[in-house]
Amino acid sequence: xxxxxxxxxxxxxxxxxxxxxxxxxxxxxxxxxxxxxxxxxxxxxxxxxxxxxxxxxxxxxxxxxxxxxxxxxxxxxxxxxxxxxxxxxxxxxxxxxxxxxxxxxxxxxxxxxxxxxxxxxxxxxxxxxxxxxxxxxxxxxxxxxxxxxxxxxxxxxxxxxxxxxxxxxxxxxxxxxx
Length: 178
Description:
Elements: H1 2-16, E1 50-51, H2 56-71, H3 74-79, E2 81-88, E3 94-98, H4 99-111, E4 113-128, E5 134-146, E6 151-163, E7 166-176
Parallel strand pairs: 2-7
Antiparallel strand pairs: 1-4, 2-3, 4-5, 5-6, 6-7
């Protein structure tokens, strides 16, 4: 038993000895491993702790819903939606919609378009550590061509929440292109 303590002490001393001189920290190369500061001016009401533990299937569900919209595949799009979904639209309207009501509303909107082009620029998957909610945030450019020939284009930033493999919350932000 004495030999175990002796070996452990020698290993500890060897690890403690360091012949390198300390270099001053360079702001450009230093990575912070410190915990979130406790003196922040705000506390997050939902979450400030996130990881990327979101399934690839959830990411595929979200991205496929955009592809289905662009292709005019309303049945495919509706397959990604839960029985009800909270929608925060870019124009300020916000409501909880039954799937059937949302399908009617979106079908009218999509039927006014002859084509939709989506260029998916980026997405990020994130999961709130405490609530375990899967969120997929997407950034994309969309060009809508209406049946009357008008063209509308914008950059979008959407937040999609997926639970049980279905979209349950969708929030969108729009910046028109000139």
